[in-house]
Amino acid sequence: MRRAKILFKEREAGLLTQHDDGTFMFQYHDFWVENAERPPISLTLPKRREPYESDFLFPFFYNMLPEGSNKQVICKLNQIDDDDYFGLLMVTAKHDAIGAVRVQKTDEI
Fold first, then answer.
1. 2 with 104: CB under 8 angstroms?
2. What is the DSSP letter of 65?
3. pTM of the predicted model, to two decimals?
4. For residue 68, what is the enclosing H or E element?
5. C-alpha dihedral sign at 66, 71, 73, 76
6. Residues 59 and 44: beta-carbon distance below 8 Å
7. How far, in Å, CA of 23 to CA of 39, rounded?
8. Where in this chain does the record put each HipA N-terminal subdomain domain (predicted)?
9. What are the C-alpha distances in Å from 30 to residues 10, 53, 85, 102, 109?
10. Cβ(51)–Cβ(25) under 8 Å?
11. Cα separations (Å) of 40 from 32, 47, 72, 75?
12. Can you tell me whether residue 50 is helix, strand or coil?
């Protein structure tokens, strides 16, 4: 299992998890859901207490990934498989992400 903190404007909004079977889960923190002033990270992931689950990386996060030659270079330099979308997201969206959302590795299991 791998897990990452999802930050919205430098505040932790929730956790993205890739399970050992390759499925994904995103869950907002309760404090994020309860605060009406904090928006959802995406229109496709409205705020709710229940986790979102998917067999594939959620489109919102997938669209944050580089493509083409940029993806090839990043994968080669970081020794990441081309189809390791979670690993690629962790490398590319931790500092330099378009928009308000960033992804940060967590040691939490």
1. no
2. S
3. 0.89
4. helix 68-78
5. positive
6. yes
7. 25
8. 5-103
9. 17, 17, 27, 19, 18
10. yes
11. 9, 5, 31, 30
12. coil
- The dihedral over CA atoms of 30, 43, 68, 18, expressed in degrees to the nearest 10, equals 30
* Between 34 and 78, residue with greater pLDDT: 34
**What is the CA angle 36-53-82, rounded to 5?**
115
The pair of three-digit structure tokens given for residue 83, joined into one six-digit string: 């189809």
**Identity of residue 50:** E
Q: Residue 25 forms beta bridges with which residues?
A: 17, 53
pLDDT tens per residue across span 63-74: 888 889 888 898
Residue in this structure with the two tokens 């409205």, named with its chain if needed: 46
Chain centre to alpha carbon of residue 10: 14
By DSSP bridging, strand 24-28 and strand 52-54 are antiparallel
* Amino acid found at 85: Y
